[in-house]
Design brief:
The complex is a heterodimer.
Chain A: E1 2-7, H1 8-18, E2 23-26, H2 33-40, E3 46-49, H3 53-66, E4 70-75, H4 76-81, H5 83-92, E5 98-104, H6 118-124, E6 128-129, H7 134-151, E7 155-160, H8 161-165, E8 167-172, H9 187-190, H10 194-217, E9 221-224, E10 227-235, H11 236-245, E11 249-254, E12 256-258, H12 262-270, E13 274-278, H13 284-291, E14 297-298, H14 312-317, H15 339-349, E15 353-355, H16 380-391, E16 397-402, H17 403-419, E17 424-430, H18 459-466, E18 470-474, H19 479-491, E19 495-501
Parallel strand pairs in A: 2-3, 2-4, 4-5, 5-7, 6-7, 10-11, 10-13, 13-14, 15-16, 16-17, 17-19, 18-19
Antiparallel strand pairs in A: 1-8, 6-12, 9-11
Helix pairs in contact in A: 1-2, 1-7, 3-5, 16-17
Chain B: E1 3-10, H1 15-28, E2 32-36, E3 47-55, E4 68-73, H2 76-82, E5 86-92, H3 95-103, H4 110-119, H5 126-136, H6 139-157
Parallel strand pairs in B: 1-4, 4-5
Antiparallel strand pairs in B: 1-3, 2-3
Classes of the chains: A alpha/beta, B alpha/beta.
């Protein structure tokens, strides 16, 4: 037994390690990145940065189906990329425990939207655990592996930025690896053709019933008896904020939020005079408790926007509308000497319409540069170039994408552009790292998550193989050469790739 | 009783390290500790704020406006915004910022010095502060940081 100060993400890594985890896969994404970084420090684990979330999910699921405890970790929008295998993994189930960790970002500290991933549990018919602190994160991930194996299901474990990045003193223990089951060919379980899938769907509905019964009796859903005048049904970080404000109230603290524990909710509600359902983001619990015909108060819809804070609680309880105030905080910007600054100063000078993407360079949308004109998701810099050109054929349109992002989901867009005869310039802003999330390795750095050498992906060769008409590599600090090249390529009736290559300044540290 | 300390400044000033030392030290003394901040874009020069709370039991990892017993501000321009965190009667260490800057030889020591100043007001043993620095710093800079810390502690005691 050993006490450590751990972040929520680190606590997940320690919990998974103690639970006998063997394989973990992810693509970096704030606020989830440190889960894999922490796991990589355990040398006896098989841990990888995958090319994207879909790939990561499939590799980890494959390992779990093969018979070892595995996990996949991502940020909320990362789960969107992995939705295809996720939905069907609910049908196949697993052989050894499989935990899907997803970190939501209420308040969008570092994201393009604030989707509430809890809805996925209903949609995919998967159990959902919601820890409210690092200590619980460690406990819940161990519980998740048990549930996964007992009920033959992937388990969703949902964090938020606040819990992922809060540090708390956590007790760590011994690692126990469960015995590995025999590897068997099980066609009806793992080949999801319609007939097999139909049979599996029957089992899913049975599984949901059993999971509901677990939800009713698990200690993860606990009633804390206090003052009966005021009671709260809550989950996640909101529980902590409420306890801070109303230490004497009664609580139904939900740790296993889906399937819903209807009987426990009814039992709790019966004895309470004034009942509240309080949660961050969407009315996930609220909508369900409503269906039970229970009377309660909940937050004004204006509080569905943004992160809640301990200060929000009295306002929510009083039924107030959220007051939007302007933050006096300094905004992030590109670092001095950043190679992207050079690239974008030239793109601005040339007055291009720039289809953007997710990465440090997204900050080029801010004044005084303001030379990036769209940002939807990873890879969309490449495909928006094609789409915009269909709408406005005569405009000077280009697309930008990062090196890690290009590998994540830009390659398919480039092939699509070649195949469908799109023109223009795709700039790959190659700073030789996944910079925005703190500098993780990827296939084109030639190093693994543990900085071990591996085969290096050569971006220029790949782009040529995809069929780009021109592929040039240029250093953005060489302004004259860069500008001349861009001026020439934009005039050509061709699809050109310009790899703007200069390493991130932070790599030198 | 829960002790509430707000650390703040801008990215790259070692604020997270400072709150880290404080949290480990409190933990070594047997307190329940929660520390919260948001990284992500901080590295890009944005505001950095770190909250440390310790006591017998801590619920919220965030300190409310008007809830901090101590404010450790690393950047004078951020002080205007951050001072709202202080409780009436809470202790503001902003007066030590210029003094601290004048004393240190290496600007990277600012965080350790300010933690030293803060330590003079907290119920945490010197042993635990030392152990915290051994945990947080790389081996070769532990000793120099202990020296800087003690200088700060003295400053805070006088």
């Amino acid at each position: 037994m050993n006490k450590l100060l751990l972040s929520g993400n680190e606590a997940l890594a320690y919990g998974a390690y103690e639970a006998g985890l063997q394989v973990a896969c992810a693509y970096p994404g704030t606020p989830s990145t440190e889960i894999l970084e922490s796991l990589a420090k355990f040398k006896d684990l098989d841990v990888q940065w995958s090319v994207n979330e879909k790939v990561a999910f499939e590799v980890a699921l494959g390992a779990a189906v093969g018979g070892v405890r595995s996990l996949f970790a991502c940020k909320h929008v990362g789960l969107n990329v992995a939705m295809d295998p996720l939905m069907t993994s609910s049908y196949t189930g697993i052989q050894a425990g499989f935990v899907v960790i997803v970190c939501d970002d209420p308040g969008m500290h570092s994201s393009q939207n604030e989707q509430d991933t809890r809805w996925v549990s209903i949609y995919a018919k998967l159990p959902l655990l919601e820890p409210s602190s690092p200590r619980e994160a460690k406990e819940y991930v161990k519980e998740a592996f048990k549930i996964s194996e007992r009920y033959d299901t992937p388990v969703l474990l949902r964090m938020t930025t606040r819990i992922s990045h809060t540090k708390e003193d956590v007790t760590c223990g011994e690692r126990k690896v469960p015995e590995q089951p025999a590897f068997e060919k099980r066609i009806s379980k793992y080949v999801m053709v319609p007939g097999n899938a139909y049979a599996r769907h029957i089992l899913i509905e049975k599984r949901l019933k059993k999971l509901k019964s677990l939800s009713e009796r698990t200690r993860l859903n606990r009633i804390e008896k206090g003052d009966k005048k005021v009671g709260f049904i809550t989950s996640s970080i909101t529980y902590q904020y409420l306890k801070e404000n109303y230490p004497d109230a009664s609580y139904l603290k939900l740790g296993m939020t889906y399937p819903f524990c209807d009987d426990k909710i009814r039992e709790f509600a019966k004895g309470i005079k004034k009942l509240y359902v309080v949660e961050e983001l969407d009315p996930f619990l609220e909508e369900h408790v409503k269906t039970l015909g229970i009377k309660f108060s909940a937050k004004d819809p204006s509080f569905r926007i943004g992160e809640l804070t301990p200060e929000s609680m009295p306002a929510i309880v009083a039924g107030k509308v959220k007051r939007e105030k302007k933050s006096a905080k300094r905004k992030p910007r590109m670092c001095p000497g950043c190679p992207h600054l050079h690239t974008f100063s030239i793109l601005k000078k040339l007055d291009f319409f720039v289809a953007g993407d997710i990465g440090c360079y997204t900050l080029a949308c801010l004044p005084p540069i303001a030379a990036l004109h769209s940002c939807i998701c990873m890879g969309a810099g490449v495909t928006f170039n094609e789409g915009w050109r269909k709408a406005v054929p005569k405009a000077k349109i280009v697309g930008v994408v990062g090196d890690s992002t290009f590998i994540h989901s830009g390659i398919t867009g480039l092939i699509n552009a070649v195949y469908n005869k799109a023109k223009g310039i795709i700039f790959i802003l190659d700073n030789s790292t996944t910079a925005m999330t703190g500098g993780q390795q990827h296939p084109a750095t030639g190093l693994t998550i543990r900085n071990e050498p591996t085969k290096k992906l050569i971006l220029e060769d790949l782009c040529r193989a995809c069929g780009a008409d021109n592929v040039d590599v240029v250093d953005p600090k060489n302004h004259a050469e860069f500008e001349k090249l861009a001026r020439n390529r934009i005039k050509e009736d061709a699809l050109s790739v310009i790899i703007s290559r200069h390493p991130c300044q932070l790599l030198k540290r | 009783m829960v002790y509430n300390i707000t650390f703040g400044g801008v990215g790259g000033q070692g604020i997270l390290k400072a709150s880290e030392i404080c949290s480990w030290a409190a933990m070594f003394d047997g307190f329940h500790v929660k520390k919260s901040e948001v990284h992500g874009m901080a590295q890009r020069g944005g505001s950095v704020e770190s909250h440390v709370r310790f006591g017998k039991q801590v619920y919220s990892p965030l300190i409310v406006i008007g809830g901090a017993d101590y404010l450790v501000c690393f950047h004078s321009e951020e002080h205007e915004r951050l001072k709202a965190f202080l409780k009436p009667g809470g202790k503001d260490l902003i007066g030590y910022l210029d003094k601290a800057k004048a004393v240190i030889e290496n600007p990277r020591h600012l965080n350790t010095l300010l933690v030293g100043v803060l330590s003079a007001s907290l119920p945490v043993s010197t042993d635990s502060w030392m152990k915290a620095m051994e945990t947080v710093f790389k081996k070769k800079i532990v000793e120099e940081n202990k020296g800087v810390f003690l200088k700060g502690r003295e400053m805070g005691q006088s």
